[in-house]
Amino acid sequence: MIDIHCHILHGIDDGPQDIKESVEMAQIAYNDGIRHIIATPHFSANHYSHRGLVRDKVNELQNQLHIHNIGITIHTGNEVRLESPAFIEEHSRDENFFYLGAASQFILLEQVWEGYCEETPKIVKSFMKRGITPIIPHPERHFFFRDNPQLLIDLINQGCLTQVTVDSLLGKNSEETMTFSHWLIEQNYVHVIATDAHNVRRKPNLSEGFRIVTEIAGNQRTDDIHRRLEQIIGFN
Ligand SMILES: [Fe+2]
Question: What is the Å distance from ligand 1's center to 137 Cα?
């Protein structure tokens, strides 16, 4: 399995405490059946995880995984927060954050928690024009998408992908988050799932997510998600 959203790098954002915990997370992921992880530290006003830093941390962790004989490949990435249109424009121009996938054709583009950025469709349009598809992480956790799903549907119609988080499906975030995440799957508005793991408690648990998707929407949908994850990472 492929996890495209995981805060597995230590000392870079609100992820694991130290490299030891990163390795423990990788072991949990491996035992769950995960073989590829895109490391997606926050790129935001609070956590400036620029490319050089992410690359160094990925290399450091990959070396540790070799030493510990854990067969997982770590890929570079970022979870980019839409602090403002100017923030995205500046850091995209200066190539400060990582896109996702071998061909850098996807961006994990997170909304701020306080409210919906009304200029999102404009920003999405400019990425799409450059051949980059925005993936919206955990829409189910944002109150404005729950209150007004049409905001999300409009972005999907523009070509955005959505990523629901396994903990939401499991009910670990809140009741309303779980209800909305299940509804999104029923309505076929979920393109991929991911763990958004941060440590050994908020852990990589992808297989449980796939179990729920299969329960709600069947095997075909589960296969579709696996295929899309392969496309995002660049395997096909
Ligand atoms: Fe995240």
Answer: 7
